[in-house]
Amino acid sequence: MSSNQHGSEMNSSHNENQKCPCPVLREEYSKLKKENEDLKELVSNLGKSKLTKYQVHRLFFSIFYFIIAVICFICFWLFLRNDTVLPRLIWCLGWSAFGFAILAFVGHTHPNPAPSLPFYLTSYPLLLIAISSLTFSILQIFEKKIGETIFYPLSFSICSILSLKIDTLPSIIGSVLGNAKK
Q1: Which of 71, 104, 112, 131 could form a disulfide with 62 if both were Cys (CB 3.0 to 4.6 A apart)?
Q2: Inter-residue contact 100 to 61 (CB < 8 Å)
Q3: Based on the domain organization, do 10 and 58 belong to the same domain?
Q4: Quick count: other Cβ atoms within 10 Å of Cβ 80?
Q5: CB 87 within 8 A of CB 79
């Protein structure tokens, strides 16, 4: 049998697999084929979309805050040897910056006519520091009750969630305080 004949047999067996009598395999094959086509379309459209000026700002700041988060995590591992509270505060700052980087990245995909540059330089950094400091302080106060090992996952979740909800945080606080007055 020559190599040409062997190659044609392989092609015919591949065609037979596409016309498999098993409905489950046929369905899985069609799903994979559709996903492959969707992926090809997504890759082909990558360079065609135009971002607005504000979307570019949001994308830049998502990368900027992600770099801040990475720097915080590097500092956390460098200071981890010290038995001080500084690594814990850096841990909280890192997760707040990471959560906000995700929020800014998601925000860049949606066209928004409002400028974000002034808020990303003034309001949001202050709010992120406040979120981190408040989370750190509250968890430090209750450290004896919650234990040292629960600090890191609890602060990770609180800082990340609050920084992801930073846009709606004032209205959430207002509604909580409004309900408390009633």
Answers
A1: 104
A2: no
A3: no
A4: 13
A5: yes
